[in-house]
Amino acid sequence: MGSIAEARCDCGFETRLSLGGGMHNYLTHCSFPYYCSDCKSMFSANLYSESIICSKCSSQNVLAYDDDSMRIKTPDLEPELLPIRYRTQTLWEKILRRKPEKIQEYYQPTKNIFDWNSSDILDRNPALTYEDYFCPSCEKYSMKFYIVGCWD
Ligand SMILES: [Zn+2]
Ligand SMILES: [Zn+2]
Q1: Helices assigned H by DSSP within 8-123
Q2: What is residue 2's three-state secondary structure?
Q3: 73: pLDDT confidence band, cut at 50, 70 and 90?
Q4: What pTM, to 2 d.p., does this model score?
Q5: Are 87 and 101 a contacting pair, CB within 8 Å?
Q6: Nearest ligand, CA of residue 132?
Q7: Rounded to whole angstroms, how far apart are CA atoms 143 and 133?
Q8: Which is it for the CA torsion 70, 72, 78, 80, positive or negative?
């Protein structure tokens, strides 16, 4: 199931995009935002297609929005500790009054607001985070993506 995203910037730039793929095309189609450096616009294209050109000016100078240069990367989030649990003991261990074994698990929080499992097709899983992205309109890193719905 794909997502519907909205990109909004402080400068007033606002646009709506569909991301990912639907029930019938998800194996061949993953819609994702791109930036064209020739006509300075954002457009969505299929990440899985072999050559991607700008939908406005047909330029090939395009960059997917999951490229590191398209956003201000903030430090990775620290893993969070989950409450300690204890391994269930056998009756024998209880009789011997063995100390229960602690199980400490971690939870890795994510910055992603959208990601798509594409490791079979691409060498990466494309994702968008809640960080600040490059705005095609004012050319500052002050645009954010928001997920506003889904489609299939
Ligand atoms: Zn263009
Ligand atoms: Zn802007």
Answers
A1: 91-95
A2: strand
A3: very high
A4: 0.84
A5: yes
A6: 2
A7: 5
A8: negative
Task: Please name which ligand lies nearest the alpha carbon of 139.
Answer: 2
Long-range contacts of 115-120 (CB under 8 A, 24+ apart): 116/19, 116/20, 116/21, 116/30, 116/32, 118/30, 118/47, 118/48
* Residue 78: predicted pLDDT: 93
Distance 55 CA to ligand 1 centre (A): 7
DSSP 5: E
Both structure tokens of 93: 């261990």
For the chain, what are the domain ranges?
2-73+112-151, 75-110
- 56: amino acid identity, one letter: K
Tell how far the Cα of 89 is from the centroid of ligand 2, in angstroms.
59
The ligand placed nearest to the CA atom of residue 7 is 2
3-state helix, strand, coil split of the chain in percent (to 5) is 5, 35, 60
Distance 8 CA to ligand 2 centre (A): 8
